[in-house]
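Fold it.
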Amino acid sequence: MEKLLGLPVLASQHGKDVDNLIIYVHWLMIVLFVGWLAYFAYTLFRFHRSRNPKADYVGVKSHASTYIEGAVAIVEGVLLIAVAVPLWAKAVGEGNLPPENQSTVIQIVAQQFYWNARYPGKDGKFGKQDMKLVNTSNVFGVDPNDVAGKDDIQVMNEIHVVVNKPVIAYISSKDVIHSFKIIAMRVTQDAIPGMRVPVWFTPTIVGTYQINCAQLCGNSHSAMTGGSLVVQTQEDYDKWLATKTPGAASSLE
């Protein structure tokens, strides 16, 4: 079914559940399409003028269609309540997040038209932040007087993570509503100004994957596809991190 639907490459641990949901919905759509088409053909035959030369003011008394509609509603409810909602809660619920000391923790701030990412330094702690400090050169509002933030790493558009290690991303926005979407990871989360929403996933295949913005965010919305997620081994990730200068934001290199 995955090949028939032409689903994109899957490179995350939980992505199979997302694909399964898509497949379940398509099976339901196929059943509905065939069923309603058959019902339409039956009504054309059953109520053709040659079979019913006079109008019947009583009509059909059967409630079969009502029962079918009820069954469809139940199936849709099961997909929503038993599959979609738990899957979403697992991906974004703070109570379901993996331990931060066993994960790659990143803060991501979207802006027109870039993706900014911030990593804790060697101390494993993010420096204090204040929205009043946000400006062109300080998109995270980092407090320059906080020692814990002196070794934090900031990058633009190129986000690196470790393969087979959970990634916790705290998503926010500097200006308008954006939407952080990595198709290969089956991850989508709106980036909303003034909010920091967590989402997590575990990448399973080394490679570079495009980051998209799933919300129309301005005239250069398409430029948001310039972001990329680079999945590396722990060794390569450590080498990359060592090349970054703590403190100041660094551009894509």
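The CA atoms of residues 15 and 101 lie 23 Å apart.
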